[in-house]
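Work Package 4 report. The design task specified in the project plan requires that, given a folded chain encoded as structure tokens, an amino acid be chosen for each position. We show below one input record used in the internal validation round.
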């Protein structure tokens, strides 16, 4: 499922400490994997791209790991006892920097808040017909051209692309976007409307379709290019037929 992309990667040189961090994260509903070397960290970052990584700077060769994660647009929380290293991490775009002896439960609560925050999106890249989405780098492309959209709209597009060809229940969209399946469905309706506007699609779009009382889906085989071409031809015929009567 799409929610699995909220995985947290933990890199720490001490396996015991690493295990404590992973345990604290998992108790709070965050799937996590641990690594103690550069090779393990890069493997997991590529095998199961994390929504966020915790990087203990006491690990050997941590700089290439940090560069790899930030280069891929991953959110990173750094642990370091050296204040200068913590400042460097924050300047490099890391979300947070704490001492290595930070309480694991406190850190887990902070990370959970980061992952649920709109600034931290799951790592996902995919396409459905002319729509492409890359959450790690924060862009959406429609028919080959990048379109600027708010992050909540970007996340909606990603969820729909991940389930292309089938409608996604409104409750699932509420869970994925707002972490609350019992929130007001109007939140979903408004965000879908904003996505349609960004893509220039009509409400009756065959590409982005609503199933009344159920949810929404993207159907790449019903690309609206065909629908618009057909509409233009029908409009031209209607105009041609109306001309003689208007003369």
């Amino acid at each position: 499922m799409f929610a699995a992309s909220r995985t947290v990667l933990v890199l720490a040189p001490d396996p015991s400490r690493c295990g404590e961090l992973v345990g604290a994260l998992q108790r709070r509903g965050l799937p996590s994997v641990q690594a103690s070397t550069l090779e393990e960290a890069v493997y997991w970052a590529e095998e199961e791209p994390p929504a966020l990584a915790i990087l203990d700077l006491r690990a050997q060769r941590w700089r290439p790991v940090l560069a790899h994660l930030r280069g891929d647009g991953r959110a990173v929380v750094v642990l370091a006892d050296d204040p200068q290293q913590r400042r460097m991490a924050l300047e490099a775009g890391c979300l947070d920097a704490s001492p290595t002896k930070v309480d694991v439960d406190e850190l887990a609560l902070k990370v959970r808040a980061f992952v649920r925050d709109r600034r931290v999106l799951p790592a996902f890249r995919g396409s459905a017909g002319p729509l492409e989405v890359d959450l790690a780098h924060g862009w959406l492309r429609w028919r080959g051209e990048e379109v600027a959209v708010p992050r909540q709209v970007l996340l909606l597009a990603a969820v729909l692309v991940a389930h292309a060809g089938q409608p996604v229940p409104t409750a699932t969209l509420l869970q994925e976007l707002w972490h609350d399946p019992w929130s007001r469905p109007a939140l979903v309706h408004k965000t879908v409307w904003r996505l349609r506007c960004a893509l220039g699609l009509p409400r009756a779009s065959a590409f982005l379709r609503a199933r009344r009382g159920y949810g929404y889906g993207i159907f790449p085989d019903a690309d609206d290019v065909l629908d618009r071409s057909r509409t233009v031809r029908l409009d031209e015929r209607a105009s041609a037929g109306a001309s003689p009567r208007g003369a």
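The chain has two domains: 2-116, 125-224. Validation will be extended to a larger panel in the next phase.
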